[in-house]
Amino acid sequence: MASEAASSGPGEPAPSLQAAVRPALLLSCALFLLCLWARGRPRRPRRSPPGPFAWPLLGNVLQLGRLPHLTFCELARRYGDVFQLRLGRRAVVVLNGEAAIRQALVRQGGHFAGRPDFPSFRLVSGGRSVAFGPYSAQWRAQRRLAHLCLRAFSTADGRSRRTFEQHVVAEARELTRVLARRGEGGAYFDPCPLFTVANANVICALCFGQRYGHEDSEFRALLGRNDRFGQTVGAGSLVDVLPWLQAFPNPVRRVFRDFQALNRELHDFVKAKVAQHRRTYDPRLTRDISDAVLGRIEQAEGLSREHVDGTLTDIFGAGQDTTSTALCWVLLLLLKHPHLQRRLRAELDSVVGRARLPTAEDRRCLPYLEAFIYETLRFSSFVPVTIPHATTADVVLRGFCIPKDTVVFVNQWSVNHDRSKWKDPHLFDPARFLDAEHKLDRDLACGVMIFSLGQRRCIGDQLAKLQLFLFTAILLHQCTFEANPAERLTMDCVHGLALKPMPFTVSVKMRDLELLASLFASLESQLPAIFSF
Length: 533
Ligand code: HEM
Prior knowledge:
There is one protein chain. The chain has 533 residues and is α+β, with helices and mostly antiparallel strands. The chain has 18 helices and ten strands. It has helices at residues 2-6, 17-40, 68-79, 98-107, 137-152, 158-182, 192-208, 217-224, 226-233, 251-279, 289-296, 306-336, 338-351, 367-380, 412-416, 442-446, 461-478, 513-524, and strands spanning 82-87, 90-96, 389-390, 395-397, 400-402, 407-411, 479-483, 493-494, 500-501, 506-510. The strands form four sheets. Strands 1-2-6-3 form a four-stranded mixed sheet. Helix 6 (158-182) packs antiparallel against helix 18 (513-524), helix 7 (192-208) runs antiparallel to helix 12 (306-336) and helix 9 (226-233) packs across helix 10 (251-279). The longest helix is centred in the middle third of the chain and has 31 residues, at 306-336. The structure holds protoporphyrin IX containing FE (HEM).
């Protein structure tokens, strides 16, 4: 044994120090040389995400199809949850499934919070958009301000919640009146344009202290251009990835020119309102979100007067169309499932009764209605892919190297229709959100991904959920909706940033017109016009 050999016996020569350390020296030299070799060796390029073959010039554009989120789900089955496409010359990484999306947008949030440098994005809100602006300290300050002011007039506390609720109830009253008028004599009509005006009016009241009549053709025309906005900035849009299409007349160039015009128009509408507010601004009285932003803009780091218009155009633009699209899906699914409509009405009648209207306070006691709304958001997944993101640095995700400024698509649809997360995701079943005691399973409800995650998560999520609940509850409490037997109700939709149901018509019967008139008359006297911030 080494220890015995080393301890020399009497009469034997002692081993030299040199001999003792030689093996250790040799080992150290070998390790040193190995390190040098490893450092000097040319590095293997790190792996890019896998993906389908991309054709020159077009890349994978022709593969996207009419509903890109479904194509992405199919490609994810072949290449995994993180894969790469090429749209024109741009590399696009597509994220699918909750785990990959959460890992990118939450755990590596800052690295995935950019927006692509698309020409169309620079046209939104006069180039000072929160939603389409690049990730920077200035953007963070603007987003914080927008979020703060929006919450102060909607869901920040009991007081703002009550005032917000009164705005929604006032709009629901007007909407119910218009629905009653349009439905007279059992007529069938398209309800969605009315939902758009009603929801836009709520945001208009919060932002500018003003609402418009359902018959106002200018306001309706302004809102009617929403679809073309979504078609330009949605995941399937070609406007930004094939810039050479701007060189000659074609449908894509027409869409882009429309987009320029409609952004100018919306921005001018908001600019005029803000200018009016500037003229009458009184720091002692904050009438609405415009006043709140005007009063705080100078204190926000890196922001100037010019950011007021951009911030308000964003809030108004993002808030007016999304919630009404959700309400159209709610109605379509009520028509498709008349037995669920009856069940919801029975729940409302037993909890709220017929002597008053449903309120936000009732929300906790109406689990089936809440479950129905969450199931509508999950099933329709009507914002299937978020606004495109971009990486803000070179980043590694799941072992794949993604360079800075890569476009990233976040496929929310894949989360809401994931078979490992939801039983029979293709079936519409609100009961999946109820626990054994028939209460709303809040953890499961939070698993629906429609407002995105992380630093770019929607800032209107709480407001939108409350507004959707109140509109749905009041409409169901007051009206009965029937499908047009001459039409086939389809889940097919018009695709843009948001999926919109194909136009459908409905007949509406009022359950109790006199009751409605007296309830709304008493509410009218309670609505405060001014709210102090
Ligand atoms: C049901 C209704 C709504 C849905 C489903 C929805 C969904 C979304 C989604 C998916 C995004 C993109 C997030 C991302 O890119 O990762 C977004 C962003 C945004 N939303 Fe909403 N939204 C709704 C209502 C609203 C409302 C009512 C407002 C304001 C009044 C609003 C304001 C915004 C803003 C300002 C952004 C940009 C956030 C950022 O880029 O940092 N949204 N929303």
